[in-house]
Design a protein that fits this description.
The chain is an all-alpha fold and about 140 residues long. It is built from 5 helices and 2 strands, in the order αααβααβ. Strands 1-2 form a two-stranded parallel sheet. The longest helix has 25 residues. It starts with a helix and ends in a 7-residue tail after the last strand.
Length: about 140
């Protein structure tokens, strides 16, 4: 949207109603900081799935993290909670920065400079060899 807005002068109505993406950088931020944690039984199940998947040629086999399919309840819940937490985080960030009215950060601004970038950087520090998320999704690339 930003290129179309800036270069083509196209305006979009209702952008304040958009939600953040529940992708692994945003969701990973909440897991890597310890704000969200898996139940021990789910963590163990995910680790077992990772170990089994690691035996498949070409699959990750270092920096072990829980692995689930996209339709697993753990992933569905993680993604749903991430969307809600991003909205809450935006309010907190604007409040902490003392931003009000037209000066407030939009969700897109906070995602780009904050949660997405922070999630990526935490993944790099936490898992320097792979930079993978703290919870992996077994996917063909169509789910992010």
């Amino acid at each position: 949207m930003v290129p179309m807005t800036k270069l083509l002068q196209i305006r979009f109505a209702g952008t304040e109603l958009l939600t953040g993406l529940p992708e692994y950088r945003n969701g990973g931020l909440f897991v890597d900081t310890g704000f969200l944690t898996l139940k021990q039984s789910e963590r163990e199940r995910g680790i077992a799935a990772y170990m089994k998947n690691a035996l498949v040629k070409g699959q990750p086999n270092m920096e072990v993290v829980p692995l689930f399919t996209p339709d697993d309840d753990v992933i569905v819940e993680w993604r749903a909670v991430t969307v809600g937490l991003l909205d809450d985080l935006l309010v907190d960030v604007n409040r902490q920065l003392g931003l009000q009215g037209v000066d407030k950060l939009s969700l897109a601004q906070m995602l780009e400079a904050g949660s997405w970038k922070g999630g990526r950087e935490l993944a790099e520090v936490s898992r320097p060899n792979t930079k993978e998320p703290p919870i992996m999704i077994l996917s063909d690339g169509t789910v992010f």
